[in-house]
Write the structure tokens for this entry.
Amino acid sequence: MKARRMRMRSTSGLRRAVLRAPILLYRWHLGWLLGSRMLLLTHTGRTSGLPRQVVLEVTGRDARTGAYHLASGFGPGAQWYRNVPRTPQVTIQVGRHRMAAVAQPLDPEGSGRLMAAYALLHPRLARGLMRMCGLKTDGSVEDYHRIGRDHIPFVRVLPVEPSGSPAPPGR
């Protein structure tokens, strides 16, 4: 069964306030309460040039490079996702650890592989993400792969040392 997009829900009013509430935890130095599964991404607005922030779920981690994988659940139109190709230098905070990083959108095939891997590791969360994103799925690995490839792009965020070189894994 092919995944199909249902009508996308608006992120205004109360829904927007709820989705943005975790940013306040980071501002109040309580980001550690969200654990290592959530990440504060500070990126640069492509039009304004001003810093923008969003809290995202860490969908995976590359043990070899230390890169974080993030999904744009609201698709390629999400503001943060549109901003990072313009200015890939970002700052991330996971728990109490804040670091410079470089964000790189993945190609559709890479996004498909990561979405399928995420769904295998976290089936309940994947189903919830599909509902939140307005997507229907039959729950198969193949369908999740198609969803990642066609609807939910992923970004690889690689921490860097102050010198500009990649940070060692485990940071």
